[in-house]
Amino acid sequence: MDASSMPAPCGPDTFTNRTVIVSGGTGKLGRVICRALAEGGANVVVNDINAEATANLVEELVSDGRSAYGITLSAVNGSEIISQTVSKFGRVDAVVNPILGAIPWKHFENLTDDDFRASFEANVLAPISIAKAAWPHFKAQNYGRIVNFTSDGMLGFPTASTYTFSKGALFGVNKTLAMEGAPFNIKVNCVSPIAYAPTMERHIQRFSEDVQELFKTRYKPEGNVPMILALASEGCKISGEVFNTSGWAVGKSVWGVLEGDNQMRTVEECLLKMDQVTTKNTKEVYEPGSMVDFTEFQSNWILGKDSKSKS
Ligand SMILES: NC(=O)c1ccc[n+]([C@@H]2O[C@H](COP(=O)([O-])OP(=O)(O)OC[C@H]3O[C@@H](n4cnc5c(N)ncnc54)[C@H](O)[C@@H]3O)[C@@H](O)[C@H]2O)c1
């Protein structure tokens, strides 16, 4: 499947009168997201630490007759980015954050505290900073969309601790902001995309040949764009979900809980029953929608009640 033969991800008016900030806007995914939003009628704010790439992308979009503005700042400067955006376009409607801090590629014991700080700053504090600064605007207008970027790397990826730890943190960011945003029509979701680049060549060697081919031919940056734009659009009615996107396919990532054993009173019993507790068997995985849901589930099965019933 060739990206150039695919239909445009949205109509030319889907984002008319909407201002969307794309932080990490000049990266592999950021670039195609900025272009698609601009072609969908949005005022696009390209935010990135790469000054030259930001200026070039903005010039490219503006010379194509699109509405774009560049802000070269780390996205941890959320207040300044929102303030410049509102001065330029009068409002902010959505923030999309395909940010990626540099990955040191070292084993855990060789990483420094500064390696972790840098990664958490780019991958977690930056999207939080932008969301926090945008929040009062979203509340005042009873409208806002946030799309953060996690990674299947959070499922475990040796030598990528700084990346996987920080990407895992976004799972919690997503759930809590979705709940706090619910009364104000602020929808917060996360994507876990795949966009092939030659730098992944070594990483994909572990897969079968047909999967390697899939990476190279179908896992284009563009193959994630329709869902990302859907989540950033007015039409988006869901919140707090994590979607895995790749090659124009979309799935949902879940965090689930299983009933265990409610009589584990000694270390010996715990050790003996560990396999039983961790084996899925025929038990149904329950996906709590919130901390309250989880606590009800846990309490109900300990009490011997139907764990899916509300107490
Ligand atoms: N490419 C993939 O296959 C893949 C897989 C899983 C997850 N993701 C996620 O998707 C997102 C985009 O990935 P990508 O491949 O386009 O990455 P990329 O490295 O091509 O782009 C990331 C961009 O973020 C910018 N950036 C870094 N720190 C910043 C900061 N503090 N403030 C503003 N901008 C900053 C960089 O300059 C760069 O332009 C990332 O969050 C990544 O974790 C990508």
Automatic annotation (TrEMBL):
<dbReference type="Pfam" id="PF00106">
    <property type="entry name" value="adh_short"/>
</dbReference>
<dbReference type="InterPro" id="IPR051687">
    <property type="entry name" value="Peroxisomal_Beta-Oxidation"/>
</dbReference>
<dbReference type="InterPro" id="IPR036291">
    <property type="entry name" value="NAD(P)-bd_dom_sf"/>
</dbReference>
<protein>
    <submittedName>
        <fullName>NAD(P)-binding protein</fullName>
    </submittedName>
</protein>
<comment type="similarity">
    <text>Belongs to the short-chain dehydrogenases/reductases (SDR) family.</text>
</comment>
<keyword id="KW-0560">Oxidoreductase</keyword>
<dbReference type="GO" id="GO:0016491">
    <property type="term" value="F:oxidoreductase activity"/>
</dbReference>
<dbReference type="InterPro" id="IPR002347">
    <property type="entry name" value="SDR_fam"/>
</dbReference>
